[in-house]
Structures are given as structure tokens and as C-alpha cells.
Amino acid sequence: MDASDAARLRELDRTVVWHAFSQMAEYDGLIIDKAEGCWLTDIHGKRYFDGASSLWCNLFGHRVPQIDQALIEQLGKVAHVTNLGMSHPVTIRLAERLTQVVGRGLEHVFFAGDGASAVEVAMKLAFQYWRQKDRPEMQRTKFLSLGEAYHGDTIGTVSVSGVSLFQEIFEPLLFDVLRGPCPDNYRRPEGMNEKEACEHYLQAYERLLIEHGQSLAAVLAESCIQGAAGFVEQPRGFISGLARLCKKYGVLLILDEIAVGMGRTGKMLALEHDEDASGDTIEPDFLCLGKGLTGGYLAMSATLSSRRIWESFLGDYAERKTFYHGHTFGGNPLAAAAGIAVLDLLEGRSADGRYSLAAIAANSECFREVLESLKALPIVGDVRQLGMMAALELVADKKSKTGFDGSLRTGKKVCDHATRRGLWLRPLGDVIPILPSVLASRQELQWVGQTLHQVVTDSFQTAPS
Asked: At CB < 8 A and 24+ separation, what contacts does 205-214 make?
């Protein structure tokens, strides 16, 4: 691309395209022309390692032959049909496959286009369920969510989220929500080990359920890691305990696996890690999937629900039990074809098996080794990892876990420095998520670790005292 074309695109990108979560008065982002594997190439020909998996969704990297082929074959049939009154074989097959791999009595699938929509579907289904089940409980109108939660950007999902930066200006539009503490394993109560902290947090949620259980439609939680909160890692056993409490007090449970599901952690669902620690089987009433569902190729999300929820919506038309909610591109056949290809790969149906869950789990150990050296850096307070997703938390004081003054934008400066070295990352304040493709090679992961070590060290040396 010649210099004049590149300059025009850059100007249009800064003045016409309105970028998400970006201050457009100072915006100067990359313009990516093509990609392959873990690498992005911009319009100037410079290559960058995609350390954020295109915002946590590009599971296997770019240009995956089996997913490419699935889309080509589907294009030879039909690109889109509505799921209002009709369907397509590939969409039906994906729904069946999802119920099989998720299990846990979640037998029904509602397709939407993004993670926020999937959670919004679960919330509306939960609310409507209590009003039309055999013995209605009309008083159940509230939701309980975790402190610092993030479930999306619709009015409903912003209401149940707890990241103040995303909420404050919209406060007059939001509905009232109960919030429990943030189950943070890094900043757990003083003197407590992980097991004690888990019990401490669960006791707090049990008190809320005792007091408010009869007014709750559902409890919402991200499984194991709260993403936008700063990759907050929950004490192991917390999700299992929360599921037990919901059953004990008769409240529906919505688990948000949009960021952590679909193999990213080395298991199909992140909640399986919690099950391994607790020995319990977690059976939510709803489970939401997105991001990696199509390998990052196309917009698609899914809300899985249990039979009792489904049956409460069945009846004569005159009973008005229908779920009056839908999305134009819900169940899109192209996206569904990509989704089936992703499941095939995760289940080992490829020539070399390197896309399988077992291979991802093995690669996670290599990733762990790479991250280990970063723990000793003076401004790295914590290194959190679950499978092929990790994060560094930068702090001004490691002992007290005191963060930097937000106005310094330390995390952004570190990521800007990394971009100049060819490693693309996007910070969450002073937390730096690291989500390479689950197929990143040992050499690529080692380069990521070495580059991060250098840019964090350089940032510390230039940081104000």
C-alpha cells in the first residue's frame, strides 16, 4: 500500500470510525491489513504478535485451515437465514453439539450475536421463568452479582456489572442490583489462605441469600476469572460453593463463560477447574458462551438453559408464555459452521491433534514456565494464569499491593512500549492481560515472555519515584 493510501486510511480511521472504549480525540490505533497464525500485519507491512487474541476471542490464531474450509463450504449453500420461523441444518447441529459438550442438564440453546446479548437473554429468561412457572413467584425481580463484575454493555448487563468506570454516567438508566464482595484471591482478607478466603466470601453470599433470596430471580457470576475487573482470579472452590448456595436457597444461577469457555483454559469450560478442586459437579440453570465459540471468526454467542426453564415457556399461544426476544443474526449458518469446526478441533478431529484440549493444556504448562520469571520484577505484584489466559498486575509497592496512581497510566505505557517492539497487548488499567493463541509455539511464548520482561523493566527504570 502506498503512503498516500495509508495516510488517508489513518485519517478516516481517526475521524469517521468510532472505536470502542477509545478516546477519539487522541486515538491513533493500528490498522491491520492481514493476519496468519499468531501474527498481525498492518498496512505498512509491520508485523505484531497478537498477544490479546483480538480481544480474547481468536482461539487458534488467524487463518485456521479447517475453519476457513468450513466457511467456504457453507458459503456454497447459504450465508444467512433467519431463526424466526426457520433454521438451517448446521445451526441445529451446533446446538446439539453444544448441549453434548456442556452437559449438566443444559439441553436447550438460544443463539445471539455477542456476549452481552447472551447474558441479557439469560437474565430475561430467568425473570420471565418466575412469572410463568406452575406456581408463579412474582416478587422475584432482583439479581445478585459479584463485586467488580462485568457482563456486557447493554443497559441490562451494565446494571448487573460493577465496574464503576463503565457505569457512572448511565446510573439513571440502570435498575437496582444486589452486589456481593469481589472474590479476589490476590487481595484476599489479611491473614487468610486461599481456602479460608473462599469460605469467607461464600459466607458473605450466604448472608445475602438468607436476607434477599425470596426476591432474587438469579445470581450471576463469571467462572473462575472476572475478566474486565482486572482478571481477578477467584479462590478455587468459590464457583462450586456459590452453585451449592443457589440450590440451597432456590435461586437460579447464571454462569458467564464468554471469555473463559470454549477451551481457552485447557478445558472446555473454566468451571471444570473448580470442579476438579471441589469434587462437585456444577449445574447452573444458564450458561453463556461467546468469543471463542467461533474461534474469533464471526459474531455468535449462545445461552444454554435447563429443561425446567424450557418447559416453563411451553403452552398455548394465548397463554403468552413465548419468549419475545430475538436477534437478526441469531443462529447465523456461517457462524454456526465456524462453531462446529471449532468443536471438531477441540475434540481432536484434526490431522495432527494439535488443536485439542489436551494439546492446549500441555501448552499451558509451557506458558506457565515463561511467565514465572516475570514474578520477580519490581512492579509486578501478581501473575495470574488459567490455561492460555494470563495477566500481570502492576503495583507501586509489592508488599502492600498498592497500585500506581491511575493518572500515570502505567499499564498503557507498558503496552505502548510493547507495541513498539512488535507485541500487541491491551491493558485493563494497570493489569495487562496476556492471551496468545492457544497454539502459540514454545519459541513464540518465550519471545513474548522476554519482550514483556524487557518492557516492564524499562518502564520501572523510567517510572517516577
From this structure: 205/144, 205/180, 205/242, 205/245, 206/245, 208/144, 208/178, 208/180, 209/144, 209/245, 209/246, 209/248, 209/249, 209/251, 210/249, 212/142, 212/144, 212/178, 213/249, 213/250, 213/251, 214/137, 214/139, 214/140
